[in-house]
Structure formats: C-alpha cells, structure tokens
Inverse folding.
C-alpha cells in the first residue's frame, strides 16, 4: 500500500469518541475507513460475536445514540441509514476486527488505527504526569505562602514589642 492511500492521523483521530469513559470508534466510521459497507462490518461482527465481549464492543443505548446523533449527524440522518444504534468498538474491539476483516486495506487501516490509539494513550499519560507535577508545585506554593505569612506575623509581633517597650535602665559602670 503506498503512502497516498494511507489515511491521515487527523482523519482517524477525529473518529475516536469518548463514550462510557472509553475511547471508541463507531461501526460506520470503521466501515468507511476500511472501505466496506457498515452492513458488511456488522454482519461480520455478528457472525463472530464471541470475539467481541462487552469490553471490546457495545451498542450505544438510546440516550447515547440520540446524543451522538444530535451532535454529529445531519438532520437527514434517517436517509443515510442511522435508524439503528451504532456499535462502538474499544481499542481491543478494533484490534479484534483485524482478525475477521482480512483485506489488505483493512489490515493497513487497522495498523494505522492502533498507532493512533497508542498515541492518544501516550498523550493522556503525558497529560496525567503534567497534572501531577502541577499539583506538587501548587502544594509547595501553598506551603511557601503559609511560611511567608508566618514570617510576616513574627515580624509584626517584633515590631509591636519594640513600639511598646519603654526605655530600659542601663546597668553597668558609667563613664564620667
């Protein structure tokens, strides 16, 4: 497969959704990427349903489907075959698709999708590490703020003491 027929990272990443706290791709998008009809993809999955447990693939429930339709699909959605809830495939489900879809295009597309999922996972890990670093810095700053406040309160106490002190009587030998 030559480089011109490879899909762009952006094309694939735009088809990864976050549903039920998971990164998933929908059957329609996958069928489009693989160059097959959605119906063919669904039939292949149904013939091999044991390969797709709930953590690999699930159907969107009514509210998820309506939400997805309202956000991503045009008003003539019924005309383009969106009357039924799509199947959502997790990263493992997409990987499993490669074992049932055997065309060269499906294999190459699957490789690209797996690379994108890996990049997304790495970006999430990097983001998490950055968040942890920021939280540590915030804690240090809070401690510094508390310490600075404490120093200023001590300085205020010392200043008040000095203002309230009367002249002390000097003890010792006097030089005449």
């Amino acid at each position: 497969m030559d480089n011109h027929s490879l899909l762009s990272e952006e094309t694939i990443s735009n088809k990864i959704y976050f549903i039920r706290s998971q990164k998933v791709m929908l059957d329609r998008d996958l069928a489009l990427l693989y160059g097959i009809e959605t119906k063919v993809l669904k039939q292949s999955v149904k013939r091999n349903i044991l390969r797709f447990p709930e953590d690999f693939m699930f159907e969107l429930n009514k509210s998820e489907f309506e939400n997805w339709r309202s956000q991503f699909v045009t008003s003539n959605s019924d005309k383009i075959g969106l009357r039924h809830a799509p199947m959502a495939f997790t990263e493992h489900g997409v990987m499993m698709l490669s074992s049932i879809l055997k065309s060269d295009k499906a294999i190459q597309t699957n490789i690209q999708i797996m690379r994108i999922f890996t990049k997304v996972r790495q970006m999430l890990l990097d983001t998490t590490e950055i968040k942890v670093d920021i939280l540590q810095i915030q804690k240090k700053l809070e401690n510094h703020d508390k310490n600075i406040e404490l120093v200023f309160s001590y300085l205020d106490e010392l200043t008040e003491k000095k203002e309230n002190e009367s002249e002390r009587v000097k003890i010792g030998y006097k030089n005449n």
The longest helix spans residues 104-164. The chain has six helices and four strands.
